[in-house]
Amino acid sequence: MRHGIVDTAARIALRAHQSQKRRNDGDPYIIHPFMIAMQLKGFGFDDEVVAAALLHDVLEDTAVTARELGAEVGAKVVAMVQVLSEDKSLPWEERKELYINNVVAATDGVKAIAVADKLYNLTDMLAGLDHEGEEFWQDFTRGSDQQKWFFRSFVDAIKTSWKHPLVDELETLTQEFEVLP
């Protein structure tokens, strides 16, 4: 039996992230890409976008290569994942600016994945801050001010190139985040 691209992507993501945990809550990491993929499927995005959502952190955070991924899911999905993958050899601020610029210049599918990813991350961050207070920031490379800069910069940039309810939701959460101490 031949599996579809979403099924193939899910299997790759499960293998690639199998031993990883989320930073702030210790949940299995795989929950994160699955939730993003389900959200985008619910908004009617096509299977290639859903597959890329499942795989959006694979190149950045695992040993899987673009060549290996391409052999399984094709060049279009790999291209989306590459746009969403940060170059961790760059300083934090520089790689975040590059990420924002790359996403703004990308397809709507890439934008959707990026916005859904940021929504999930920001929701987790707000829950972590509510639960842990200022101690929450101990696990992050950058603290509150830098994170607020990133989310505001991302929202402001994405609003110029894409209109979608996900962007509106991210704008609302970002505003809530910005008023926290």
Walk me through what this model shows:
The chain is 68% helix and 0% strand. It is mainly alpha-helical. The chain has one domain (5-178): Hypothetical protein af1432 (Orthogonal Bundle). The longest helix has 25 residues, at 108-132.
Structural features:
181 residues, 0% strand, Hypothetical protein af1432, mainly alpha
State mean pLDDT (0 to 100 scale): 92
Whole-number tally of structural domains: 1
Low-pLDDT segments: none
Any idea what the CATH superfamily is called? Hypothetical protein af1432
Number-wise, the strands total: 0
What CATH calls the topology is Hypothetical protein af1432
Report the top-level CATH class. Mainly Alpha
Chart the SSEs and their pairings.
Elements: H1 5-16, H2 31-42, H3 47-55, H4 58-61, H5 66-73, H6 75-84, H7 92-104, H8 108-132, H9 144-159, H10 165-178
Helix pairs in contact: 1-3, 2-3, 2-8, 3-6, 3-8, 5-6, 6-8, 7-9, 8-10, 9-10
